[in-house]
Amino acid sequence: MNSRIRVTVWNEFRHEQRNPKVQEHYPQGIHAVIAGALAGEDVDVRTATLDEPEHGLTAEVLGQTDVLLWWGHLAHDEVRDEVVERVYDRVMEGMGLIVLHSGHFSRIFKRLMGTTCDLKWREGNDRERLWVVSPGHPIVEGVGEYIQLEHEEMYGEHFDIPAPDTLVFISWFTGGEVFRSGACYERGRGKIFYFRPGHETHPTYHHPDVQRVLRNAVHWAAPTVRSTPRAFGHAQPLEGAGS
Amino acid sequence: MNSRIRVTVWNEFRHEQRNPKVQEHYPQGIHAVIAGALAGEDVDVRTATLDEPEHGLTAEVLGQTDVLLWWGHLAHDEVRDEVVERVYDRVMEGMGLIVLHSGHFSRIFKRLMGTTCDLKWREGNDRERLWVVSPGHPIVEGVGEYIQLEHEEMYGEHFDIPAPDTLVFISWFTGGEVFRSGACYERGRGKIFYFRPGHETHPTYHHPDVQRVLRNAVHWAAPTVRSTPRAFGHAQPLEGAGS
Amino acid sequence: MNSRIRVTVWNEFRHEQRNPKVQEHYPQGIHAVIAGALAGEDVDVRTATLDEPEHGLTAEVLGQTDVLLWWGHLAHDEVRDEVVERVYDRVMEGMGLIVLHSGHFSRIFKRLMGTTCDLKWREGNDRERLWVVSPGHPIVEGVGEYIQLEHEEMYGEHFDIPAPDTLVFISWFTGGEVFRSGACYERGRGKIFYFRPGHETHPTYHHPDVQRVLRNAVHWAAPTVRSTPRAFGHAQPLEGAGS
Amino acid sequence: MNSRIRVTVWNEFRHEQRNPKVQEHYPQGIHAVIAGALAGEDVDVRTATLDEPEHGLTAEVLGQTDVLLWWGHLAHDEVRDEVVERVYDRVMEGMGLIVLHSGHFSRIFKRLMGTTCDLKWREGNDRERLWVVSPGHPIVEGVGEYIQLEHEEMYGEHFDIPAPDTLVFISWFTGGEVFRSGACYERGRGKIFYFRPGHETHPTYHHPDVQRVLRNAVHWAAPTVRSTPRAFGHAQPLEGAGS
Hints:
Chain A has 7 helices and 12 strands. Chain A has helices at residues 15-18, 20-25, 30-38, 59-63, 81-93, 107-113, 208-221, and strands spanning 5-11, 43-49, 67-71, 96-100, 120-122, 128-132, 146-149, 154-156, 166-173, 178-187, 190-195, 233-234. β5 (120-122) of chain A pairs parallel with β12 of chain D.
């Protein structure tokens, strides 16, 4: 029901400047590949990174953002309080938020979940299969029964998150673990999607089905055009109400 | 993400032929008013009623229906087994289903819920206020904090349904009752929305906000264009899997 | 909050009479092993099987049952309508129901879920790991991070069930599949737990953690002593209510 | 499954020292009345208040607390950071938390919910009816269809909380509002119950059904005796796993 959706892809953008193995897959940064995958007929995309002033997330930028994507890993603690609160306020108002991979430990995700968001992990030779468990959900439109990634970092349960409002994907890993890898939440008036894959040393964000899921998620998370007002505070009774 | 949505409005269409008070509000039937409210730029609407052959719900009609709306009251038991199963099969495949008011006791709704779907009720002088409790949900796009209906039949808790996947509205009634009056479910690949108001002796379906909710619900419940396949039965292991 | 819990273990009891491989693990039947595991200080257990009159589930037996366990596979269609409805009515009233393994296709489970309950399967050399994803839940009291079964039949997603009210276990299988293998539901006033493992050719019900989960589940599913009344039908307004 | 449950009732304890209308109902403080209602055969109770050192919630006290109740209103901001974090850490480990009435705006509740927890309110002449919508839940054991309170402060939707894992009560108010007034959550390994009524100028905590709900909630929220371990961090693959 939206006309054009305004997306901001936020990336920590540190690994790409240091690690040749990451540069190989993401020479312009992870954000550039994701932005390229999202831009389209009905989606306008900009990017923002940690080392820009205000991390690129000024009040003006966030005020013009319908859906924010978040990739972070090494430097969660460098994200400043006021930016975390600014993003948080926008989610309460209805901005969509898509949290990627190691963003499970970002300050904004922990703030919104209210739990530690801790998990198991292993860098190794795992294959990952993301099985669709909610096959009618718009986020899996056009996706098959599962998405298979030949090499990915393993994340395993227990994943310390609230039970998702809707669980969309469950991952299988070669080494014996499972993970709730696609999880939808509604918080305030905002929609949140956590999507597990995307380790920086693998070409995951080039995978067509991963890109498709992100595009679908952007459409799902975009706020409704005329959102329901929410009035808090003191209230008058209904006229004519008994007592 | 759909192009045009094909809607079928099903109505029992008995009250309207017998009760002058109902005819006053719905001279062509409840289905005619709802169909008129739904038809639009991206929605094609047809109607079907109980006394047509196969209740108007042939395999061909259902095969061309993306979202089915259901209003029934007096004659739930006259709906034939094979039509109930046909609708059920289509919901499992992905057809959306919007169940209205007294349709809580329809055979198809009870079949899908797995509970008695029983409730309290009173015809009287109740006012109803439907409060939005999920303000970011697409079904309440453009709706205010609540919808107020000056005269409606009361339905009260306990409403014997499964806990909704998403609860969208809670109703308040003058006489002291509450009711979960907007409830979303996913069953199979289909989306189901139960929407409480719509007693036949009140002009409820002429109310602009009620019509807006129905239009929103049609868009929400429409199946995705390229749905995720579901394969059941015997399966081969992943190549190279250990043991 | 219950004093003694009255449990009935129902078993189809056909495999055990025909298949030596099954007899080896369950010479007296699967029900006998489960009953032995459940009987204890605060639990009284009886058993019932398909070929008894009324399948052993007379109105009297069910009226004295707080929690019913259900194992069936070959002969789901032989379970008579009136027994299915009798069990169903008791669940609506508050009797707990624990559905085991191939019971996913039993008539009573499909009746309560409202979906096809279909899934993938493979008899082979899979190992299964049931990961706990709800570590504070009473059903996993005393269980470690996961339960590992060296040989089990594989069940894989998509499992066509409603999203569980609480998801307790997710299974990993060697061959590349995952499965929601411990799922809690509330239907009517009854609590339902589906627990995946338990193929007849494996000694699964002898495993101490499987037995522990079943004991925990019996305590979880037992009805409260003084259940909340549910009044349906016509209702009077609150005295003094306005209009 | 617990032997004795160790409960701590925390109260801000300011209104009672200033307002004669509050003193009339709670001469020893709200905490004293609640503690008296909870103490029993299998429950040990202590109390703690804001103006004690460390607000009475030392590491030792919390380490010996299975379930914490929280009533606060005027002085949420005076609760110190380290105490909020200490309570939070204990909930993650499995301590139950019951948040009462105006505690919806406490720092610990907002921390755990991840939302603003804002709402509508009115002090006036409202009657409140708390309708049971989850009649098989242990928290409503022994409670009728609803609890009626002749005078209470009104809290109305939209209540800005995550969708509850289980919704137990919905309140009706004379003046036209509804409210999700009994809400269960699982966060980390801890269980949380928010229970709406309890304005300081009304004798709500003397009401037998309110006391019954609190007693039930204490039993529901108590941690399991042998909780499931949760291992986070680096993990080894399953032996023999393929790649």
